[in-house]
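Below is how a single chain appears once it has passed through the pipeline. First comes the sequence as given, then the structure the pipeline wrote out for it. We keep one example in the README because the format questions we get most often are answered faster by looking than by reading.
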Amino acid sequence: MEHFASDVNFGLVSRRRAGTYVSYQTADEIASSQYRHACHDRTGIADRLSLLSVGPVRSTSVSVYRSRGNGRFSDRELDRAGALLPILMVSADLHGGVKAVISGPRNGTIEETQASLRSRYPRMTVRELEVAARVKTGMSALQIAAELGIAGTMVITHRNSAYARMGVATLRELLLA
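Resulting structure:
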């Protein structure tokens, strides 16, 4: 059995019953000794409070942990952490939305994206176009470096130059450009 299958949150998500769930688990409550050792004992986690939002397509979980050195959460701390979890969930959902745009279906090929960028930003260098097109189609800096045969630091340099020529400052702005 994989460790994740022993996690109470995994059980809630895998049932796929849409809803919002709160789970609290101490390390001592974990039945699987392998899972407890790998994920709690080794890392010094005493307990975890989680808020899960289970949807038909995507689920999100936000957790707060307490280290063994600080002891378990008190009831008051659980109440306070529980009040923060919905705020953290909104942040996670917003972050997930950006990730979905980045990792979602690609809009055209790299070549089509590069041609589109070239027509709108004619002052971009060939390398800036190559990098920006690959970023727009969802590739990571490491993937781009490997494909173009350049260092990862050069990918970031060319990406930053492309951002400046395009008048964008963030990945989100680039994706919308």
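The first strand starts at residue 19 and ends at 26.

See the next section for the split statistics.
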